[in-house]
Amino acid sequence: MSEGPGPTKAHDPVSAAPVRVAFVALGSNVGERFEHLHAAARGLAALPATTIVGCSSIFETAPMGAAKFNFLNAVIALKTVVAPLPMLDVLLQLERSRGRAREEKWGPRTLDLDLLAMYGDEGPLTVAHPRLTLPHPGIAARDFVLRPLMEIAPSLQVAGQRLDHHLATLPEGARTVRGRHGLPLLERAPFGVSVPLLEGG
Fold first, then answer.
1. CATH fold of 17-180, please?
2. Three-class SS string for 11-58?
3. CB neighbours of residue 79 within 10 Å
4. How far apart are CA 200 and CA 68, in angstroms?
5. Widest Cα–Cα separation across the chain
6. Would you kindly state where each structural domain of the chain is located, as residue ranges?
7. pLDDT 10s digits, 39-59
8. How far apart are the first and last CA of the chain?
9. Is the separation of the CB atoms in 52 and 186 below 8 Å?
């Protein structure tokens, strides 16, 4: 008697999803600024099949627009299976969990999270969606993004130029970083990341 086919293995959407490296910018200028950033980093690290592979210093940054108080800013690199639009939803939920209300552009904020870029086997992902543009169009114009991003991915290129080129050509009025904050965002977090970071699992 011939044996029937063996049991069918259940499809695992997480293991089947492509692995990518995502760069996320974090900022806060209201309330317990450090704790807001730390809570966001913990939330990102808890995502399914996600690992923090790079974490910058925290930078003290002068406010822009209507905001009155200095920001703390940092950038985290994640190795993740979460796709761009679901990642955006995660970031918005984390903002809401810290009391963020999106009421005015450049206004004060408990937590501000931006998906800067994502990289996969095929290179940088390009997204043009009503809710999301990747790479983030403001990277090259913001020293509070360029400085922390250069710490963890110095070879990264934006619009065909290295990050240090963009930083060197910023006008004086766009230079907002005042210095580094004394506390690390995450203890024992890996400090640098190469892109793509997919070799070797």
1. Alpha-Beta Plaits (3.30.70)
2. CCHHHHCCCEEEEEEEEECCCCHHHHHHHHHHHHHCCCCCEEEEECCC
3. 18
4. 45
5. 82
6. 17-180
7. 999 999 999 999 999 999 999
8. 43
9. yes
Average pLDDT of the chain, as a whole number: 84
Cβ-contact 67, 48 below 8 angstroms: no
Tokens of 77: 């690199």
Cα separation, 91 vs 15, in Å, equals 22
- Length of the chain counted residue by residue: 201
What pTM did the predictor assign? 0.85
Give the chain as a DSSP string: -PPPPPPPPPP-HHHHSPPEEEEEEEEE-SSSHHHHHHHHHHHHHTSTT-EEEEEPPPEEE---TT--S-EEEEEEEEEE---HHHHHHHHHHHHHHTT----STT---S-EEEEEEEEETTEE--EEETTEEES-TTGGG-HHHHHHHHHH-TT-EETTEEHHHHHHT--GGG--EEEE-SS-SSTT------SS--TT-
